[in-house]
Write a structure and sequence with these properties.
Largest sheet: 5 strands, mixed
Strand content: 15-25%
Helix content: 25-40%
Number of domains: 2
Shape: elongated
Order of helices and strands: EHHEEEEHEE
């Protein structure tokens, strides 16, 4: 039977939970990303203590799984210093682009766990980040909805 039609366990009946996928890419992080990872580990440790006190087996299994993921991300984190101003776009840069209609959009190139495209934070392994990295002011960049020009890099 295809895995698509098999109910994944939630740990409630003691069945194993699927592990969270750890990316094969380097775990590059900004200073903010490292703080985020550390906060997740601390939050999960506290939640695990509470779940153990409540003897909530399903919660314990779920939290232990999440804690394994975030502990691994913390262990493998490679903090990258903030980029120097005036250089090409790189990890940690905020890149401001202007489209043909004059609208502007800002993308910040961050680690995978920090990425939130709706907030303008894109993973350094994303196709868009690949097009931005190495770019300089006045470079034209192919965007999902047309071309844009880099007008500022911070």
């Amino acid at each position: 039977m295809s895995r698509a039609f098999v109910k994944e366990g939630d740990g409630a009946e003691g069945e194993p939970l699927a592990e969270l996928h750890v990316s094969p890419h380097r775990n590059l992080v900004t200073a903010e990303g490292l703080v985020q990872i550390q906060a997740n580990v601390e939050r999960l440790r506290a939640a695990l203590s509470a779940a153990r006190a409540a003897e909530d087996r399903a919660a314990i299994l779920r939290i232990q799984r999440d804690l394994r993921y975030w502990s691994e991300r913390q262990r493998t984190a490679e903090p990258v210093p903030a980029p120097a101003p005036g250089g090409p776009a790189r990890f940690g840069s905020s890149v401001i682009l202007e489209s043909a209609d004059g609208s502007r959009i800002t993308y910040r190139i961050v680690g995978e766990d920090e990425a939130d495209p709706a907030q303008g934070r894109i993973s350094y392994v994303s196709p868009l980040a690949s097009r931005l990295i190495g770019g300089r002011v006045d470079d034209e960049v192919e965007l999902p909805d047309g071309d844009g020009v880099i007008v500022e890099i911070r």
